[in-house]
Amino acid sequence: MIFGLFRKKNNNQAIVGRQYSVLTAAARMPQFYETMHVPDTVMGRFEMLSLVMILFFRRTRSCQTSGQEIAQEIVDAFFEDIDHSIRELGISDNGVPKRMKKLAGMFYGRLESYSAAIDSGDRAALAAALNRNIHPQAADAYDMTALANWMFGAEADLSAQSEERIATGSATLPQAA
Question: Cα–chain-centroid distance for residue 66?
């Protein structure tokens, strides 16, 4: 009986690994960095990975238990990946928790602001939030309309995908135009 618990965990690990790989590949689409004004920097990559995680997390909020469990494990994998990346950048063991706390706060703040704009259908508010988060030091605003439009399309695309695709780690995101 106890061995069944381990098998389920292993199945989830394969599902989480497959889905996380798809999500990270989506965050790395060159169009984001070449035409949608996302800087190809460590923080630009964090912003895009956060963005696709938020879209996936939003899709799974209406899933049954298995989809929500997968989503939580994927978010956990995301934060483990960030922790690993911070360490690779040379941040000391003492500095990692402080950075992780800050990045987690940034992630959940983005979840709230992007969700509010998406839920209200306000593309301009989403573009403004994207600009504020992706270009916090910029004196002039960047046009983030294309990225906001992609997010609305990706949200619709994910919403149309079946529970089975979510639960098996087979969900996809559309290509960036």
Answer: 19
pLDDT 10s digits, 116-135: 999 999 999 999 999 999 99
Neighbours of 165 (CB within 10 A): 16
Name the residue type at position 53.
M
Domain locations in the chain as residue ranges:
2-168
Q: What is the DSSP string of 68-97?
A: HHHHHHHHHHHHHHHHHHHHHTT--TTTHH
Give me the numbers of helices (H) and strands (E) for the chain, helices first please.
Answer: 8, 0
Q: What is the pTM of this model?
A: 0.86
Locate 50 and state its tokens: 């956060």
- Distance CA(129)–CA(133), nearest Å, equals 6
Measured at the CA of 160, the angle between CA 119 and CA 169, to 5 degrees, comes to 105
